[in-house]
Amino acid sequence: MGNVFTNVVEIAKSICRLKLAPGDWAVDCTMGNGNDTAFLCSLVGEKGKVYAFDIQEDAVLNTCKKLRALNFLERTEIIRDGHQNIDNYLKEKVKLAIFNLGYLPGGNHEITTEKDTTLEAVRKCLGILRPNGIILLVIYPGHANGKAEKEALKSFTSQLNQKTYNVAHICFTNQVNNPPELICIEKVCSE
Fold first, then answer.
1. Interatomic CA distance for residues 45 and 18, integer angstroms
2. Which of 112, 121, 155, 189 would you label with 165, given CA atoms 20 to 30 Å apart?
């Protein structure tokens, strides 16, 4: 058995494996190149559904290509729009929502997620989260917008009612160069 704590992305994937089962619904709030979307599709199976959001055409094209190659397109709803508009597309309750914040790997680093739209999206995801569902926020604080997102998300999530949500913040305190961090929000009961 290898190291358990390799990085927050692997920890987030382990949580996805624990939480999602065939037939569940999930949201990839930042589809990027489609890696998380494909991973979620593999977990929810043929009867499940994954909604995937991104504002960039390259992200949509890259994700569609990846999903087509894996035969996952039929279980996915690809949406070219900001994650803050999730309520325009999704009314159903979901088991999991994941955000891999920052910029599109291999894309324009000037186009990043922003704290205000990310906070709005997280608030809306809380409203569609099933009891025992979870929101995973992978945060990259190595750039200005990432630092601002991290502080805003830490502040917002630390104020969530503990009777309704469990919130955990995972960071590697002995790693250099602003390693990614993970905030997990688990809904423990219906409001």
1. 14
2. 112
In a domain, 146, yes or no: yes
Q: Which segments of the chain does DSSP mark as H helices, in order?
A: 8-19, 35-44, 57-70, 115-128, 144-158
Closest Cα to residue 104, out of 150, 57, 66? 57
pLDDT at 1 over 60: no
pLDDT for 154 equals 95
Structural domain range at position 61:
8-187
Residue 96 placed within a domain: yes
Q: Is the pLDDT of residue 20 over 60?
A: yes
pLDDT at 31: 93
**φ, ψ of residue 124 in degrees (nearest 5):** -70, -35
Q: What CATH number should be reported for the domain holding residue 50?
A: 3.40.50.150
Determine, yes or no, domain membership for 65. Answer: yes
- The tally of domains found in the chain comes to 1
In a domain, 171, yes or no: yes
Tokens of 99: 């955000």
Would you tell me how many other CB atoms lie within 10 Å of the CB of residue 115? 20
Reported residue count of the chain is 191
Residue 67: closest CA among 32, 16, 15: 32
